[in-house]
Design goal:
Length: about 170
């Protein structure tokens, strides 16, 4: 059960349509919203342990070379994040902060250095033995970056899909 809509918005934040068949419409686009959801055959609390600890991201997120949080362990409001990722063969550093945790098993983050992006991770119980995980990423492209929109949105969509699949495989191993 995966959902990966990519929506575009204009500078005023108005909804402008949905990208289809791996292509992103870019006229007036400045923000992409991507979402991936997958069912996990494990209890929500066990899945939350993995999703809420950035030190474990290397095990399931594509391209992550290192991911550290301060303080280490499960996220809390104000937790800072330092990530190094490999994108197009080059290392790329970003920093962020956890802006909100809860209610329930969810947290929101935003980058403070690197890409202009934010998002959230949610774990929602279905019953005592299953849950769903939803990952949301919002990326804003500015100036000349907008020219990359037809390439960035499909790449991020594929990566998010693969990340959720890897998370599910990791959860299944444990």
């Amino acid at each position: 059960m995966e959902r990966l809509p990519v929506t575009r918005r204009d500078d005023a934040g108005r909804h402008g349509g949905t990208a289809r068949s791996g292509r992103a419409e870019t006229t007036g686009a400045s923000m992409f919203v991507l979402e991936a959801t997958a069912e996990m055959p494990r209890p929500a609390e066990k899945v939350w342990f993995v999703v809420a600890d950035y030190a474990l991201d290397r095990r399931w997120r594509s391209g992550v070379i290192s991911a550290k949080s301060d303080p280490p362990g499960p996220v809390a409001p104000g937790t800072t994040i330092d990530e190094v990722m490999r994108i197009a063969g080059r290392p790329y550093r970003s920093s962020g902060i956890v802006t909100e945790v809860g209610p329930g098993l969810r947290f929101s983050w935003r980058n403070t250095k690197g890409s202009d992006s934010d998002g959230e991770r949610r774990v929602e119980p279905l019953d005592g033995e299953r849950c769903t995980v939803t990952m949301v990423v919002r990326v804003r492209l500015r100036g000349a970056e907008r020219l990359l929109a037809p390439f960035v949105a499909p790449m991020l969509r594929r990566t998010l899909r693969q990340d959720v699949r890897r998370l599910r495989a990791l959860i299944m191993e444990s």
